[in-house]
């Protein structure tokens, strides 16, 4: 395992960053997460996050809903999910096996709205005795490792993302109550957003592939051509060499750059309970390599959730 030092400034005498995957993923040690971290420590965590795309912290058992959110505010503005109610009446989103919360599809969080989250901060509360790992993939290296003709092809494409995809077809073994829950809650509002397939990352300047399971079709193509191209680019994202896999322990925290990754929750812990809490940080409207922003196609605006601003509500690119 290679050891690297967090940039740009020494955050503390004990903070270390150790890579756990070749293309993404690092463990940060020597930090007790909370709302009281000094600015230099927050800067070091943010720098590691932008470089490694997903960072992991062990032993953060002291965190609860409130301190999880207090820490999140150090990275930006927490935002509520556009349709799913929170666990605490504020921002903490429940990722629970009891609610069908098994995201075993490769995705980037909430890409069915324009300004989808910049960061997600996931905290493990109950972990099954086996299985239930999460995988992340680096969408920047997926792009940069494409052959030049495929990069040029991707640069010119745009894709429509929606939360109204065929959940029942994707989860043929889902219980009827899970399907009802999905239809009544997750798609309470049906969103459609057109994104560039290649986004220029607003902080690093890297080009990243923007697809995942909310991507319904490539704009302007037939269904068959669209599926072929989505599968082509998505296969480069999902290559094992382009991923990292995390085996959760209670008290772990993972933070990922949601603008440069996809992730996948492995559904292999049978009926054992798995509970995590996620707080997401507001993002901005993506732009493609041609400078064109993402556009909300429907509805006209992102509705306000019960508490706080909605993820994606900061859009300035609403199509009239
Ligand atoms: Fe997710």
TrEMBL record:
Residue ranges of the region described as Disordered: 300-320
Name of this chain's protein: TauD/TfdA dioxygenase family protein
InterPro entries: AtsK-like (IPR051323), TauD-like_sf (IPR042098), TauD/TfdA-like (IPR003819)
Keyword list, A-Z: Dioxygenase, Iron, Metal-binding, Oxidoreductase
Gene Ontology MF annotations: dioxygenase activity
Domain TauD/TfdA-like residue range list: 20-280
Transmembrane segments: none
Similarity comment: family membership: Belongs to the TfdA dioxygenase family.
Obligatory cofactor(s): Fe(2+)
